[in-house]
Amino acid sequence: MKHNLLFALILFALLPFVIVHAQNGTKLIGYDAVTSGRAGTSTGTFDNPSLMMNNPAGLSFLKTSQLDASFSLMAPSVYFQNSINDTKGKNNLFPLGCISYVKSSTKKLTWAVGIFTQGGMGADFTLNHSLYINNTGSYVQQDYHSKFAVMQGGFSLAYKLDPKWSVGITANLLYSMMEFEMPMSMPPSMLKGVINPSTGFNFGNMFSAPAASGGLGYSEVVASANMKGLASYEFNGKIGIAFRPSEKFSAGINYTLPVNLNYKNGTAAMDMTAQMNNAFGKVVAGIMYQNPGYTAAQAQAAAMAQFNSMGIDFTKGATDQYQAQATLGLPQSVSLGFSVAASNKLRLSMDAEWLNWSKAFNVMNINLAGGTNPNINRMLGTSGTIFMPFPLQWKDAVLIKTGAEYAVNKTLTFRCGYAFGSNPVPAATVFPVFPAVVKHHLSFGGTVSVSSTVKLNAAYEHAFRNNETASSESMVGAQFNNSSSGLSNNIYHISLSWLLKH
Question: Could you tell me where the beta strands, DSSP code E, fall in 53-164?
Fold first, then answer.
């Protein structure tokens, strides 16, 4: 009973520390200091309760009941470069926490409970944007911010079919949160408000048509957007098989179900002031070109009259507040792994995992409602709603992890590992606040047995910097055309393992 109470107290204490950063896509390669020290190999290595997340069937082969508490500190570095920016993002620090407990009920049945930070990503920049320029011609820097976090907590059951084989399942309640802020680009075709009912000519036509045809010549329309408070609660599951014919060899396979993330209860602020001011300036310039004798004041008055005739009142501004919802996903995945004792002291392990990012991160659908600004509603041709499919188009990824453990003696064990994950982010949609592009990881770690029942584990993980260049026509926005986004990462892990009697 005391053990259960201690577990519950630590579990709730960890709830605030869930914001994390990308490793492969948005998925961490390891959840605790033991597995992270060997680059996350775990599907076929049965030695700690984090098997709940990696292969629940392997819990059957733990030699004793065990309570694990883990704390990690993540220190990512993000970079961005385009024609008007060359900068490093803010140096954020992200605390992470995991806790898990496993117990054998009978010789065949083992159960476990735990909560784990699964993954995420985030970045903070202050950048120049070609649209945001003051009266002196200087850039007015804009905030670019993202925060995406995922954590899971739940229950696992493992059943030993015979001394060599086991099956297991994990059922989790998943929580995810998301924040997003940046100047967002929209196609002019979203501006469906009709200007001339007899011809069907609308604001989208006006903004996109070339100047020679009387249009404004925009390839995109930009609005500063700031979404906060988006949260999703979903269910997730895992199914695993474990095989251990001897102490020298073990293998496993794990399948993780896909998750549809339905974010609700968010808010979004939208500001189209810079876009409208720029459009107004183009109209004024066009009027002065057509009427060389006009003064600037006369041209501005004529432009104002033109916008008024279209139902746009500049005195009412171009900002609004919305209720926000969004949809995204987490990928289904399949992992295979094995562990082999090369000698009495040395054990080698390897995992291979396929992640179905192409379905989970294809499009982030954003739905806004409750807007009251008459100018924005007039241009959009809606009564305060906006539907925006944000393109991601990630690719499926393969993650290969290799690890080694060397037992110096009964008290001290060293670990090391290397992991490679193919980059899931395509050139068409790479941009700095979703910088999930790292490929190569190197890790080191070790365990010290403080006593016969208490072990102290530590690990260091480094994700080497990787830069990805965006395509010449970014699907996210023209500001990212031919840009470069980069990420490197350092993660420090420490955990405590408490071995308990069955």
Answer: 65-82, 85-88, 94-104, 109-127, 142-160
Half-sphere exposure of 173 (CA within 13 A, CB side): 5
Which residues span the domain enclosing 476?
2-272+318-500
**SS3 state of residue 15:** coil
Element (H, E) at 431: none
pLDDT tens track for 164-186: 999 999 999 999 999 999 999 99
- Using DSSP's 3-state secondary structure scheme, residue 188 falls into helix
Q: What's the pLDDT band for 388 if we cut at 50, 70, 90?
A: very high
d(CA 420, CA 374): 51
| CATH number of the domain within which 467 lies | 2.40.160.60
**DSSP label at residue 307:** H
What is the three-state SS of 458-490?
Answer: EEEEEEEEEEEECCCCCCCCHHHCCCEEEEEEE
Judged against a pLDDT cut of 50, whether residue 132 lies above it is answered with yes
Residue 12 has pLDDT above 50, yes or no: no
- Helix (H) and strand (E) counts for the chain? 8, 21
Q: What is the pLDDT of residue 435?
A: 79
* Main-chain dihedrals φ then ψ at residue 34, nearest 5 degrees: -70, -55
Number of structural domains, the chain?
1
Neighbours of 486 (CB within 10 A): 21
Q: Say if 251 falls within a structural domain.
A: yes
Q: What is the mean pLDDT of residues 138-167?
A: 95
Residue 94 located in a structural domain:
yes
pLDDT at 244 over 60: yes
Return the sign of the alpha-carbon dihedral for residues 53, 54, 57, 60.
negative
